[in-house]
Design a protein that fits this description.
By secondary structure, the protein is of the alpha/beta class. The chain folds into two domains: 275 residues, Metallo-beta-lactamase, Chain A, CATH 3.60.15; 176 residues, Rossmann fold (3-Layer(aba) Sandwich). It contains 14 helices and 22 strands. It has a seven-stranded mixed beta sheet. A seven-stranded mixed beta sheet has the order 7-8-9-10-11-20-21, with helices on one face. A six-stranded parallel beta sheet has the order 14-13-15-12-16-19, sandwiched between helices. A hairpin with a 7-residue loop joins β8 and β9. The structure holds zinc ion (ZN). The site of zinc ion has 5 residues, from loops.
Length: 464
């Protein structure tokens, strides 16, 4: 059988790997390439897996760099089944509709800007393609083996990365050749709020593993809950507001959960808290739906608190008008809003009204890519450009690190060790990582792999 690497090969977006036997073609993930506009568009428009001939897609989780191009695949002729976990199916629907909406708005803006000089820019896919894609999804429960036929079985194991995220196990028969293939998707970490820990497997003939932070050890998470409380209360005492830019999927729910715990223990100072992101509100509903799959701490809380994403003083803001009205209120409050890197979304308006007042605080809780507004705030530049205007950055800026959803070198070591206790790894492929991280993980992984370790290039095919 063959595996061809069609994305996330030597880079970190566009996850897509094709597993082929004599009788089947199955795709692992079908993610969006993200990066410079023209280059990503070209990569996202072209499929090298012959979509019409792909029998099935197995989706590891609902991040857009793993599922974002499924509607494009459907549009290009794919009519097979998409297997994923139940929570992944629900979250992917929201993420893909959001992606279609962003593309629609983007194409309108670009068509206006390029008027006359360029034919209109079409979105890569629309709501209709998303709906048709969702109809092709076949959700499976964790731990259940599912047969595509006697020659091809699959099973999902918790990956601990985001809600619904899975490690994919395949049991594949090609003639007399039998292989157990494991694809980590994105591997999470132990002890993270809300999520269960990643689960080890029992060896594999072929391991395809991500290596995003293979060369890094994350800083200790510390007590983020207590730090949040202290910063919010100090800001309130000064009469200021706290703005927390946060991704709608995952980070927002972690913060709300921490604040809910503080509220329940009587430690949260009395002030209004707003979640101002319609996508985050919809994602939170899915977290509630699957709360029985969350970690042991949540299960303990649920015994006395039937909704860990709601507490007195917390409001989920829906309408744009309500969002704008928050900036007219002159009282201490907390606003949790997307996007996490402050590049777009409602948080930009809140920052515009907040950054020049020294009573206020911005808490950054995730990675801030270069050239983003988040990065400029993180660097505490004297002036930051918001909606085309330079504004003095006078507010307090805090960075709370340690909530990364990706395994670091320590987590990989733990997972490799546990996963080879009852069986070894045959050959291995390192994907979803910049070269420095795959190179750094290579010597560690070598201790657990019997055969070769490859760092595939885009489009490279291997007989396994
Ligand atoms: Zn991910």
């Amino acid at each position: 059988m063959k595996i061809t690497f069609l994305g996330a090969a030597g880079e970190v977006t566009g996850s897509q790997h094709l597993v082929e036997t004599r009788d089947r073609r199955v795709l692992l993930d079908c993610g969006f390439f993200q990066g410079r506009r023209a280059e990503s568009r070209e990569k996202n428009e072209q499929f090298h897996c012959r979509p019409k001939d792909v029998d099935a897609v197995i989706l590891s989780h609902a991040h857009i760099d793993h599922c974002g191009n499924l509607p494009g695949l459907y549009k290009a002729g794919f009519h097979g089944t998409i297997f994923c976990t139940e929570a992944t199916a629900d979250i992917a629907e929201l993420m893909l509709l959001d992606s279609a909406h962003i593309q629609f708005e983007d194409s309108k803006y670009l068509s206006r800007k390029l008027k006359g000089k360029h034919p209109p820019v079409e979105p890569l896919y629309t709501d209709e393609h998303v709906k048709a894609t969702i109809n092709r999804m076949h959700p499976l429960t964790f731990g259940e083996w599912h047969e595509l036929g006697e020659d091809f079985k699959l099973r999902f194991v918790p990956a601990g990365h985001i809600l619904g995220s899975a490690i994919v196990e395949l049991d594949v028969l090609d003639g007399t050749d039998h292989k157990h293939i494991v694809f980590t998707g994105d591997l999470g970490r132990r002890g993270m709020p809300l999520l269960v820990d990643p689960q080890p497997v029992e060896g594999a003939d072929v391991l395809i593993t991500e290596c995003l932070y293979g060369g890094r050890v994350h800083p200790p998470a510390g007590d983020i809950k207590t730090q949040l409380k202290e910063i919010i209360c100090e800001t309130m005492d000064k009469g200021g507001r706290t703005i927390i830019p946060a991704f709608s999927l995952g980070r927002t729910q972690q913060i709300v959960y921490f604040l809910n715990e503080l509220f329940n223990s009587g430690d949260l100072c009395p002030l209004p808290v707003f979640v101002d992101s319609p996508l985050a509100t919809r994602v939170t509903k899915i977290f509630r739906r699957y709360d029985e799959t969350l970690d042991a701490d949540v299960q303990r809380s649920l015994l006395t608190d039937k909704d860990v994403f709601s507490f007195g003083g917390l409001r989920y803001v829906d309408k744009q008008k309500e969002s704008a009205a928050l900036n007219e209120r002159d009282e201490p409050m907390v606003i949790i809003s997307a996007s996490g890197m402050c590049e777009n979304g409602r948080v930009v308006h809140h920052l515009k009204h907040a950054v020049s007042d020294e009573r206020n605080t911005v808490i950054l809780m995730g990675y801030q890519a270069p050239h983003t507004l988040g990065r400029r705030i993180q660097e505490r530049q004297e002036f930051v450009r918001i909606f085309g205007r330079e504004q003095p950055l006078k507010c307090r800026v805090e960075q709370l690190s340690g909530l990364s959803a990706h395994a670091d070198a320590t987590d990989f070591k733990w997972w490799f060790e546990k996963s080879t206790e009852k069986g070894s790894f045959g050959q291995a492929f390192l994907v979803h990582g910049e070269p420095e991280h795959s190179a750094a993980l290579m010597p560690l992984l070598r201790n657990y792999v019997d055969e070769e370790i490859h760092i595939p290039q885009w489009g490279e095919t291997f007989e396994v």
